[in-house]
Known about the structure:
It is a single chain. The chain has 800 residues and is mostly helical. Helix content is 58%, strand content 4%. It has helices spanning 36-56, 61-86, 93-118, 129-137, 139-142, 155-177, 194-205, 226-238, 242-270, 275-285, 306-313, 315-336, 359-372, 378-397, 402-422, 451-470, 476-483, 489-507, 514-539, 543-578, 592-618, 626-635, 640-651, 662-673, 707-712, 725-730, 738-749, 753-763, 781-784; strands at 190-192, 431-432, 508-509, 657-659, 680-683, 715-716, 765-771, 786-790, 794-798. Mean pLDDT is 91; it is low at 1-10, 12-33 and 339-349. Helix 1 runs parallel beside helix 6, helix 3 packs across helix 13 (359-372) and helix 19 runs antiparallel to helix 22. The strands form three sheets. The chain has a five-stranded mixed beta sheet, sandwiched between helices.
Amino acid sequence: MGTTDSTAPALGTPSAAEGRVGAPVSGTPRPGSGGRLARFLPALAAYGLLVALLLASDTSVSDVARYTFYVLWGVLLPGTLVFRALRRRPHTLVEDLAFGAVVGLVLELAAWAVLVGLGLQSAATAWPLAVVVPFLAVPRLRRHWFPRGYRRTSTGWNWSVAGVVGLTSAYLYAAVLSRNPIIPDTETTRQYIDLPYLLSLAGNAKNNFPLTFPQAAGEPLHYHWFTFAHMAMTDLVGHIDLPVVQMRLMVPALVALAMVITAVVGHRLSGRAWAGPVAALLVFAVGEFNAVYPNNTPNWTFGAPLVPLMSWASLSLTYSQPLLMALIGVIADVLRGRGDEDEDADGPVRDRVPVLGRGAYVLVALFALASSAAKASSLPVTLAGLAFAGLMVLIGTRRIPWAIVRLGAIVAGAQLFATAVLFKFESYGLEVVPFGNVQKYWADPAHTRTAVTQAVVVAATLIAFVLNHQLRVVGMVPLIWRRRLRLEQSQWFLLGGALAGPTVYLVVNGFNASYFTLAGLPFGVLLSAWGYCEVFGRAALPARGKAALAVGTLAFVGLLTYGIYNYAGDWATFALKAVGDAKGTKSYTPLVPALAAAAALAAVAAVVGLLWWAAGRALPGLRRRGGLVLLTGALVAGAPSLLLDVQQSKHVVWDGAWPMPAGQVEAARWVRAHSRPTDVLVTNDHCRSENDWAVAGQNCWNSLSFWLSAYSERSVLVEGWAYSPRLMSEKSASFWDQPLLKLNDDAIHHPTADILRELRDRYHVRYLVADRKPAPESPLLKSLATPVFDNGRVAVYELS
């Protein structure tokens, strides 16, 4: 990722050349010091590893090649050209490509809207010509094909970023790709319950602008659905089957992009190249602090953990991460002002990074609009960060920070557009209930605790929340401390976003509120990496010290992982007995293991700190470096979650993984191959069954059936309605049009010629799809409709 073969400077430590103002962090290599291929070797290695892992997980060579073409032609090329035209001066090639890829995602949304809105899906592969032709024809734009003036990032930085990408790819292979078939291939295949629903939205996006709710034909979809427009364009431009996009290609590519853009933004904002890879590691490789194994859904004490959800269970979160990180980067770039070298509170000169220029405001608008319906939690947290920064700057300078006002207006406009036009003010069940998500841990309905005891329990709950989700942002503390709250505007913005995410979670009730916590994490991670690099730089470790710190960190993570994996149950038993909760019946029981583990680690840190201080009197090399060791340990305390998630995937089935029988998928894909996008389907299957209807006459209670709309890519008159915006906001479980539901079901179980005629003429139904496991179809159906498919489990009838 980058363009150099030069030697990397020490992490956070100014090189010898940095003693003079404006000296670059990364030196320019001498001519002939390395070939062109060597400059790109880290990127090629990361790409090669990912390709190898995709092929090992049964992805075809053709699909990998098609997806590579799609990324280069449909995302990277147009996006990079437009980004180059908007930024003032080049900085590094990797920055142009990273921001260019994110700009390409935004341009793709506009292309999708035009193509699908006009019914020109067949021309999707050619849409980048709308960008390429002007950049070839207009003389002032031609220079952006081969810009000059790039600074070369160091070899160490390139390999570090490539290593982070490789780590994410390896994790995804071990935990996801190797565990889930592209298309369910047996009757006992299980699939995470949300995945067919998300696939159905992507199929709908291939043919509808704006999207509709595919499980209830014609019902509007007030939801953050930009992710599925992206999936649709991947299919239309690259001609790749949607299940392959969902189950193999999209997630690793977007996670890799998120890692690279995080590294670029970390460098740009802090002026320290190594803040980038550190931030990328913290945002992905270090997860939530938890002493529980296996850590399945019931153990998610404070909402969604980032690592599993960013990998495959929440595609909208995966898609939104690079967009949000790019938005943070351009906003903070505007706030940091000039592109000259800056001097830190401690004196060393930071890397000169040129500002983006006036085009940054255009980029803010593009990224804000794309983020608005990529993930609904992104812009509120960003707005809160801007508001916080504006308030602190106003208090500190007693002047209106007009740059913040302008940026706030742009982001607020994008939020208003999404709220009013796309979401239609739907709340999806979220409501303001202060501490509604955490108060269950201090609940005392029988009033058996004293006031002091209750206060301790409340405080312990909030401490557990901070430890669980926020430990990896602790690097911001030394940065803020040493500046004595005299922060730059960009730092106030990052701090505001970092505080806003968890604050919203504590104020707004509902599981989906945890996505606000995850939206605030990138802000905090960038500031944390910035602070860590400053601490590292002040420590001025020699080469041996750096090696010792690296080895010690890996050993600490390994021991912690080993301990949790082997002794989590014993530790929980011990901790619960220690607090007088041997039966595990208290409201705070789920929090005790992690709190006890944190207390034990703190005690160990205190002992080590005393020994370090004592040893420092005899060994001067240890002095003033213990803080770095302590900070490193705190930041990586959540690292076992990544390793344990891989191990868990081998032995423990995810809660929420429900049957997805191959017979259903086969029938749905037959329908897709023999129908038009405008055709509507009818089915008798509205529910998912945890045991695939093994019990005769099992009641339908969840309305979570999405398989037909997912794999047929067609709208269904009434399928599973549980995720409809209408019901999520009303908190109801019943379908809103009972006469229509009765008409739908009667067509399968009590058919008449009049019912079928009404379905065909009024609702444009072409196929009836009967799943015999929940209940067999009526024998009369064969005489009223034409049987066209039957695999024993599912029968399909056509209305002529």
